[in-house]
Amino acid sequence: MKNTISRCVGAACLVAGALGLPVTASAVPVTSLVGGTQLTMPINNIYRGNGPLQLVPGITWTSTGANSMFGNTDGYGFDGNGDWNSDKTMVATNDDTTTTMTFTFDTAVSGFGGFFNWAPSDSTAAIAAYDANNVLLDALQFSFLTDGSLNSGQFLGFQESGAIIKSFTITGLFVAGADFEVKAVPEPGTLALTLVGLGMLGWTARRKAQQEDRA
Asked: Where are the domains of the chain?
């Protein structure tokens, strides 16, 4: 398999330009998500539509295509670039026009990605990450080719040092994604409790030192 990726070119940047979105390129494109948690997509072989549907609690999927697939395990062909079977529970475009599928996070995350394949002979395909203000953080146009084997593809995604990724898009004519992973940060409540705890420890230590000095 040819493992090459192109940052913010072609379809992804054309979309960004058409929408007038600035490109900050602050999210780092990755081919693996270190410390990521794999997500289990619910199986739904009947569904064809544009959502919204829940990938897992806190992550919502939508699509611009009226016939997009979510939770499909019936298989998908990539016109000479391999095929997926029931081992892949996927989201996939299924219309005759370029479609964008979006994962929106209730709470911003620091990383997100998945295992993808596409039909390079039919159209371009790309992924992109956006912040809470819908500013494009970065984008990748697919350029990889598989050996045509069953369930082949490539993991692609974005990772940031902080939790700034609010949505993740997949754009193309014939493109599918599966085996999604997310990397988050501690929940705000957990982080707040941690800070309070550290503050209490510091206050206790200072008070003990003052009592010892007076003694």
From this structure: 5-184, 187-215
CA distance 174 to 78: 7
Q: Which two tokens stand for residue 24?
A: 């900050």
Task: Report the distance separating Cα 147 and Cα 80, nearest Å.
Answer: 9
Contact assessment for residue 181 and residue 114, using Cβ atoms and an 8 Å cutoff? yes
Domain 5-184 is found in CATH 2.60.120: yes
Chain-centroid distance, C-alpha 175:
14
DSSP string, 10-66: THHHHHHHHHT--B---SEEESS-TT-EE--PPP-SS--S---EEEETTEEEEESST
pTM over 0.90: no
User: Percent of the chain having pLDDT more than 70?
Assistant: 73
pLDDT in tens, 112-136: 999 999 999 988 999 999 999 999 9
Cα-flanking dihedrals φ and ψ of residue 195, to 5°? -65, -40
